[in-house]
């Protein structure tokens, strides 16, 4: 009976806790849609209510955990052997309910904290924007001039870097072309040095061919004369 009573109380508390989280998010969204300067109605009271309800639910969960522990001790006692199966089933059902309520509470609490943290961050950003908008015209003008000057300096640096890059690329190309010209010149010199040697070699080959032809002609003539002399004698 104590467990069922605590479970009913927890169910009602968790429903109210979930509604509080939903209303907090809706109020924040309505504030952003209506106006950035409109103060949130009962924002701090909702935060206090959240803290209070969270503490109450945690206390109820602690009490229900204690009841479940006592029921577990009772089912393990030696005086109730015939009722053990039914009691274990009832205890398991109460444990499942406790686990579901604990999971739902932590999930709702985490969602609430995430929404509040997000809204605090957005509020800080909105304050920064409002403080910037509410600044004097002179300060805004100076800021704009500083920003323009900074942009001009960045453009000048970029142009200088591009000019340096073009100069470096031109230097590399000229160095490469100079190397190619040197290679061509060396090849031309090599060919020029080789041509006389080739001509000399060709002349030597021609002279050797003529000498071989003369020797062969002389041998053929001598052989012919010897054959004629042998034939007539």
From TrEMBL:
Which Gene Ontology cellular component annotation is one that this UniProt entry carries? cis-Golgi network
Chain segments annotated as transmembrane: 214-232
Instruction: Please list the GO terms describing molecular function.
Output: SNAP receptor activity
Residue ranges, annotated region (Disordered): 24-44
- Where in the cell? Golgi apparatus membrane
> Among the record's GO biological process terms, what is one?
inter-Golgi cisterna vesicle-mediated transport
**Top-level taxon of origin:** Eukaryota
Keywords linked to the UniProt accession? Golgi apparatus, Membrane, Protein transport, Receptor, Transmembrane, Transmembrane helix, Transport
Q: How is this protein situated with respect to the membrane?
A: Single-pass type IV membrane protein
Q: Which InterPro entries match?
A: Golgi_SNAP_su1 (IPR023601)
What Pfam families does the entry give?
V-SNARE_C (PF12352)
Primary role: Involved in transport from the ER to the Golgi apparatus as well as in intra-Golgi transport. It belongs to a super-family of proteins called t-SNAREs or soluble NSF (N-ethylmaleimide-sensitive factor) attachment protein receptor. May play a protective role against hydrogen peroxide induced cytotoxicity under glutathione depleted conditions in neuronal cells by regulating the intracellular ROS levels via inhibition of p38 MAPK (MAPK11, MAPK12, MAPK13 and MAPK14). Participates in docking and fusion stage of ER to cis-Golgi transport.
The record, for PANTHER family, names: GOLGI SNAP RECEPTOR COMPLEX MEMBER 1 (PTHR21094:SF2), GOS-28 SNARE- RELATED (PTHR21094)
Similarity comment: Belongs to the GOSR1 family.
What is this protein's name?
A: Golgi SNAP receptor complex member 1
Annotated organism of origin: Struthio camelus australis
Its ancestry begins with:
Eukaryota, Metazoa, Chordata, Craniata, Vertebrata
């Amino acid at each position: 009976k104590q467990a069922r009573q605590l479970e009913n109380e927890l169910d009602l508390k968790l429903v109210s806790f979930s509604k509080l989280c939903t209303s907090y998010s809706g109020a924040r969204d309505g504030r952003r849609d209506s106006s950035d300067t409109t103060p949130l109605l009962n924002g701090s009271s909702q935060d206090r209510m959240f803290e209070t309800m969270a503490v109450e639910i945690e206390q109820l969960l602690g009490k229900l955990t204690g009841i479940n522990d006592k029921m577990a001790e009772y089912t393990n006692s030696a005086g109730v052997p015939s009722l053990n199966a039914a009691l274990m089933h009832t205890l398991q059902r109460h444990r499942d309910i406790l686990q579901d309520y604990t999971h739902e509470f932590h999930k709702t609490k985490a969602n609430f904290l995430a929404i509040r943290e997000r809204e605090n961050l957005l509020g800080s950003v909105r304050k920064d924007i409002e403080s910037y908008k509410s600044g004097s015209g002179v300060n805004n003008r100076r800021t704009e001039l500083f920003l323009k000057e900074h942009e001009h300096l960045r453009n000048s640096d970029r142009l200088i870097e591009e000019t340096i890059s073009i100069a470096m690329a031109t230097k590399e190309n000229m160095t490469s072309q100079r190397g190619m010209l040197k290679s061509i010149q060396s090849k031309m010199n090599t060919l020029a040095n080789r041509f006389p040697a080739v001509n000399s070699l060709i002349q030597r080959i021609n002279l050797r061919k003529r000498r071989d032809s003369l020797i062969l002609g002389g041998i053929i003539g001598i052989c012919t004369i010897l054959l004629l002399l042998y034939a007539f004698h």
